[in-house]
Amino acid sequence: MSDEMGLFEAMYNCRAMRRLDTREVPEEDLVKLVDAANQAPSGSNMQGARWLIVRDPEQRQRLADLNRRGVEAYIGPQTGRPDALPHQSADKRARMLKSVVWQMEHMHELPALIIACMEFGQPVDAATMARGGGSIWPGIQNLLLAARALGLGATPTTLALGDREAVAGVLNLPDTMGAFCLIPVGYPLGRFGPVTRRPIDEVMRFDRWS
Ligand SMILES: Cc1cc2nc3c(=O)[nH]c(=O)nc-3n(C[C@H](O)[C@H](O)[C@H](O)COP(=O)(O)O)c2cc1C
């Protein structure tokens, strides 16, 4: 597998890949993903990001159970979740939800669940979590791009992580660490394709907004 894909090609084709094969991913590729993530910047260069690669079947099942709780709340009635968005038709959105449900049903079988965490050096609370995001998401995006370049499917997910105490219990996190994102990684069952985003003239201005 080549990891020589151009950076821009990877960025424009880095779709959330939820349907993944159960085939194992070589450990060296998983480490390569985390190594790429670890190159990302962090506020004040604190480098608090920590990465857990979960492969143990029982641990995967526990995380899958937490994800199921989160997904069921997300897709349940009266959650305020819009059926369509200005930039995403009801049909496309329904397909996305189907893949979220597929992922929920199969998460325990997926070869690796990578958890992006942050070590804060002090007990974690809602405020530390709120300010930690800026220093973990650049690494998560690096990881997603590296996965794309290696031909691996991945999706950034958060629905499993809503219950902070339950997550810390499953992962044996010290009280100074918080989990921000769970990224299932594996070989895609579907085909890679380009992302669909709002056109540039909707999201960019020069000098002033209006
Ligand atoms: C902060 C954040 C949280 C997300 N949480 C979830 C999640 O819990 N489950 C999931 O299946 N996808 C999740 N996603 C993936 C988004 O649904 C996906 O990136 C978005 O629909 C765009 O998909 P595309 O890149 O395939 O166009 C999350 C993405 C981000 C950035």
Structural account:
The protein is globular. About 40% of the residues lie in helices and about 10% in strands. The chain has one domain (about 5-75, about 90-190): 3-Layer(aba) Sandwich (NADH Oxidase). The protein is of the alpha+beta class and about 210 residues long. The chain has a 4-stranded antiparallel β-sheet, with helices on both faces. The mean pLDDT is about 95. The structure holds flavin mononucleotide. Flavin mononucleotide binds near residues 16, 18, 100 and 103.
Shape: globular
Spans with pLDDT under 50 lasting ≥5 residues?
none
Distance from N terminus to C terminus (CA atoms, Å) equals: 47 Å
- Topology pattern, helix = H, strand = E: HHEHHEHHEHEH
What structural category do the secondary elements indicate? Answer: alpha+beta
- The Cα radius of gyration reads 18 Å
Task: List cofactors, ions and other ligands.
Answer: flavin mononucleotide
CATH level-4 homologous superfamily: NADH Oxidase
